[in-house]
Structures are given as structure tokens and as C-alpha cells.
Specification:
Elements: H1 2-35, H2 47-91
Helix pairs in contact: 1-2
Length: about 90
């Protein structure tokens, strides 16, 4: 029974780390999206601004896959933790 408790604790710590990383990435993406402009005026002076906007959009696009993977990992760990917790509760009966 003790190994289940230590496994559950380890999974909860792992879930906390994964979820913290997910929250940090979501905050970072939010700050990038705040700097993204909806409208760009393209003229000779606006070329550097357009280049900057393309770089921001590229960073946001790069973040979508890791964020999706962290969401799946966080939800999967949460389901496993709930399953072990329920299993541990039913073993007491």
C-alpha cells in the first residue's frame, strides 16, 4: 500500500511540474499575442515592423505544438492520478 502512496505522490509532483510549464507557456504566448498587431501599414518605413510581426507570429505558431502536448500530458496525468486515488480508496473496503 505504501508504494501506491509514493507513486501517487510522484505523479502529483510530475503533474504539478507539467501544469506549471503549461501555465508559463500560456502566459508567454499571451504576452506575444499582446504585441501582435491586427493591422500593418506596409510602406518603406513599415518593412521592419512587418518583419517584426512575422517573427512574432512565427513564435506563436511554434508554441502551439508544445502547448498542445502539455495539455494532453497534464490531462492524462490527472486521469491516471484520479484512477490510482479511486483504486486506493476501493482497496480500503
Amino acid at each position: 500500500m505504501e508504494t501506491i502512496g509514493s507513486t501517487l505522490f510522484g505523479l502529483m509532483v510530475t503533474w504539478g511540474v507539467v501544469t506549471s510549464a503549461l501555465i508559463c507557456l500560456l502566459i508567454y504566448r499571451g504576452t506575444l499575442e499582446a504585441h501582435e498587431d491586427d493591422q500593418i501599414f506596409l510602406d518603406a518605413a513599415g518593412d521592419s515592423m512587418a518583419r517584426e510581426q512575422r517573427m512574432i507570429v512565427a513564435r506563436i505558431d511554434k508554441l502551439s505544438r508544445p502547448i498542445t502536448l502539455l495539455i494532453v500530458a497534464s490531462c492524462g496525468l490527472l486521469v491516471v492520478i484520479a484512477g490510482i486515488w479511486l483504486y486506493q480508496g476501493f482497496q480500503k473496503f
